[in-house]
Each structure stands twice: as C-alpha cells, then as structure tokens.
Amino acid sequence: MPRTAGGTAAGSAPAPPVTGGGYDAGMATEPESLAAAPGWQGPSLPLSPLSRVRLDELLHELLNRVGEVAASRERLRALLDAAVGIGTDLDLRSTLERIVIAACRLADAEYGAIGVIGPDRTLADFITHGISDEDRRRIGALPRGHGVLGLLIEDPRPIRLTDIAAHPRAYGFPDHHPMMRSFLGVPVRIREQVFGNLYLAEKRGGGQFTDDDEELMTALSVAAGAAIENARLYAQMRRRQRWLEAAGEITSVLLGEVNRTQALQLVASRAREVAEADITLVMIYDEATDALTVEVAAGNAPPDLIGATVCGSRSEFGTVLADRHIAVVEDLGKATDWSVPLATGTALLVPLAAAGETLGALAVAYRRGSVAFAEDPDIALVETFAGQAALALERSRAQDEREMLAVLGDRERIARDLHDVVIQRLFAAGMQLQGAARYATPPEVGSRIEAVVDDLDTTIRDIRGTIFELRTGDAGDLRHQIRALADEARCALGFRPHLSLGGPLDSAVPEPVRPALLAVLREALSNVARHARAGAVEVNVVVDGGRLATTVVDDGVGLGEVDHHSGLDNMRRRAEELGGTFEIGPARPYGTALTWAVPV
C-alpha cells in the first residue's frame, strides 16, 4: 500500500497527535524505533521543582525513621540483654550491682546507684557505680534518703531533673563527692511493694536524660524487680534449707544425753548462721534476782559477755519475759543496762518458754547499718531456734532431776543401811565394852575401855550427821559451808579447829538463819586467831529440840578486857534479832567459851 509523507497508509485516517511527552504514545506505536533512536535517555517524570523538593524531604524523613527504628531496635536489644544479664546470678548483692551497671550503660549515665528502702522508710543500703572505692571512703557515710533522694521514697514515680543542685529539696553534696547535674530516678517494685529506687546522674556528653531514657529505665526497673524477687526467694530457700539442716542437727543432739552448755552453744551458732546475724545470745532468767545472765554467745560478741547480766523486768526484756512476746530494738546495748559495754544494730528478742514457764530469752542482733530482717519467715526461723533452746534447757533440767533422783535413791539406801546396821552394831559394841569395863580390875584397862566407848559415841554422831547429809536434797550445803569455814580458819590459827556437827542442820536450819550462823562462826574464829593465842579450838554446831546451838571453846589466854565496839556486839545483835541468846565467858580450866543459840 502506498504511504504518504506522514508515514500513514493512503486512504486511512491520520494518527492522533503525541501529547504529554509522547512516552506512552511512542511506546504504543513504535517501541523498537524509539529505543533505538540516537540520543534517547529514557523516560522522565513530569514534576515541578517544588514537587521534587517535597519528594526529597519525604525520602529524608523516611531515612530518619528507618534510622530511628534501627536505633530503637538496638536499644531494645540492649534492654533485653540487660534484663537477661541481671538475672544470671541469684545472689542478691550481685544482682543489685548488675542492675546499676546495666542502667548506666543503657542511659549513657556517668554515675548510678540503687537504694534499698528499709522498714523505717529510709535507705538501708546504697549500691553505687562510677565512684571508686577510695572516693566512697572519703565521702563517708552513705545517704539515708533525705533531700532529693527522698522524693522517690515519698512519691514512688519517675523523676527527671536538669540540675539536681537547683532543686528546693537538695542538701548539697558532701566533701569529695563528684559534681552532678542531670538526674533521673525510677522506683523498683516487687509486685506492689517498692523495694528501692534506681538513681542515675550526669548524662555523658553534658546532655539531659530524655523520655526514651526514662522509658528504658522504667522497663529495666520491672525486670530488676523480677530479678530481685528471684534472688530473695532463692536466698529464702537456701536459708530454709540451712534451717532444716540445723534443726535436724540440734534435734539429734537433744535426743541423746544433753550437755546444757554445748546444746545451747549449738543453738546459738546455728541461729546466727541461718539468720545471717552478727551476734546471738542465749540468756537465762533468774526470777529471784530479776536478772538475765548470758549463758552462751555466738558471733562477734565481746569476750567478757559470757556471764554478763542485765535487768529483766525493768528493760526491753520486760515484755518478752512477762507477756512472752517478740520485741525488736534498734540497739541491744542502748536498750538495756548491761554490766559490760555492748553495741549492736537492730536486734530481735524472743522468749524461751516451756511448760508455761519463761526460762530466758534468745537475742539475735545485726551489725550496725546492715539490712535487718523484715520478713515474717525470718522471725519464724528465729522463733524455732528459741523453741529448741527452751527444749534444750528443759531436757537438761529433766536429765539433772533424773540423775538427782538416782543419787538420792542411792543415798537413801546407804543412809538406811548405816542407821539400821552400822550404828546398831557400833551401839551394841559400845554397850558390851561398857559392861566389860565393870569387870576390869586394873584401872588402866577400865580407862582405855571408856575411851574406846567415847570414840564409838563420836563415831555414831558422825555417822548420824552423814545420814542427815545423805537424806538432804542439797547435798549438805550448810554442813559443807561450815567445814569450808573451818578449813579457811586454818591459815589464821595455824591449825584446823576440831569440828563437831550434830542434828539435821541442812533440813532444820531455815535460810534466814544460815548467813547469821556463818557470820558468827567467822567472827568467833577470827577473834581467837587475833587475841587468844590458843593451841586448840573446839567448834560444836548442833540442832536439837528445835534449837540451834553453836559453841566455840579455845584454850587461849582468856577473855581479857572486852571492847564493846568489837564484833561481839554484832554477834549478840544477830542472836536477838532471831529470838536467841548470846553468852561469852571463861572456859575451864582456861581459855574462852562462846555460846550462840537461836530457835529453828
């Protein structure tokens, strides 16, 4: 078909004109010829200069958003790594230190700290990062939560400050403390309870903490609270495990023969270990003197604390002893009037009670400034050890009573044998000797027989005295004291006085009379040693017919001039106060005789 000059077939309609750049039309009509045309550079968008600027801005904003997303992703990755890292170890102290380090790294802070809130709503512990140990020592005491740090304690919500020193609550920094301006603080919660606060200061580069920093720290505090709770639960589990082991050890000891001191020492040592305390004391109460005496001590106790006493009812122990209630004191040394110096931190006082009787108290004291117990399980553990200490005392007392009953049974049997067999035989032998003396022709034989009879009478009296001692529950305490007094006088006299004891001294002489009797004997023997120049002294103490009679006879130079201001007046006054009599005069053939007698 013939073509026209425009390139169209003859007789056909002309092609539509190309508009708008002609890219679409050219591609539709002659794609191959256009692509092959010399100098063709491809298609171009029909945009105005203003549209091109707007497109560049959108592209730039898109790139910024992509960068922010990447940065946020990195920060989230860092937050996840921090959350995983702080939970790698279940030791509470190490966990707190890792939390502070992770917070400083995430927020790019120069300094960080975590403060543990104590029962008194102040900071009981303060773990820092960014300050060297030397600087901490130079700064001195750790903060207690006053000033700006106390804001989070009063109102546990995140707080950001551009200049911490400009805040109205700021106290200022102590000497040797680094200067800080920017500040960020968030509370650390364990469930609904505020455990402590996380503090950050001095953003690196001189900037300010941002909203993102606050959000990161808030998220980290949630992970920190979970890690802290896990660490505390782990510590509690370990403590209960140690408690079970200690309880089993103490129980095995109490099931056998109980040595009171060793059993109480074991209870005190294990209670201190399980409660992680500094000092543990087991104190025995004496109702007669209203005094508590330290029986055993474990831990960093003063060496002279064993045997130290403290008043019972007129001290912090009053409620513990009277009502059998647990008491908590801030300082055990200041709470009571000790006979030796003592200084502690918070202390827990637990009564030792058994069978309705208060036997004493268990004191568990912590170091000054340390984190004290604040949980019921801790108190329950200490109460358990107090119960074991009371059980040890009861077992020891029951064991002593059984041994005493066995001893008294043996003594009763020996006393019965002495009375029914030995004394009767001696008495019969004496009667036979007296009968034989009448038939003795030489006077010397009769005298010797009478001397043997007198010796038998003395032996019978001694055996009767021994029987009284054996049948007395306190093992002849008064007789023992009189004998000890005679032994004591040996040094002053140069010889031991001849002592004769008769009657039920230990059972018949009441307690109020005993000190007076011993004082009279001591004064009488002292006078003989100082003034009589005697070579022999006879001391006779006898209970007969409801009357206690004491005589002291020496063979010295005699009474001489009596000094009315001497100890004789004291002996007379003691006898009169007890309704008795006192006499002193010459002995035959020489010397002095003293008689002191009171009703019993």
Automatic annotation (TrEMBL):
Q: Which InterPro entries match?
A: GAF, GAF-like_dom_sf, HATPase_C_sf, HATPase_dom, Sensor_HK_TwoCompSys, Sig_transdc_His_kin_sub3_dim/P
Which SUPFAM superfamilies does UniProt cross-reference here? ATPase domain of HSP90 chaperone/DNA topoisomerase II/histidine kinase (SSF55874), GAF domain-like (SSF55781)
Q: Low complexity composition bias: which ranges?
A: 1-13
- Keywords annotated in UniProt: Kinase, Transferase, Two-component regulatory system
For this record, an example GO cellular component is: membrane
Q: Where is this region: Disordered?
A: 1-27
Instruction: Output the Gene Ontology terms for molecular function.
Output: phosphorelay sensor kinase activity; protein dimerization activity
All residue ranges annotated as the GAF domain in the record = 91-238, 259-403
An example of a Pfam family matching this protein is GAF_2
Q: Could you tell me which CDD domains the record lists for this protein?
A: HATPase_UhpB-NarQ-NarX-like
Keyword Kinase belongs to the record: yes
Which domain of life does the UniProt lineage start with?
Bacteria
Protein name as it appears in the record: Histidine kinase
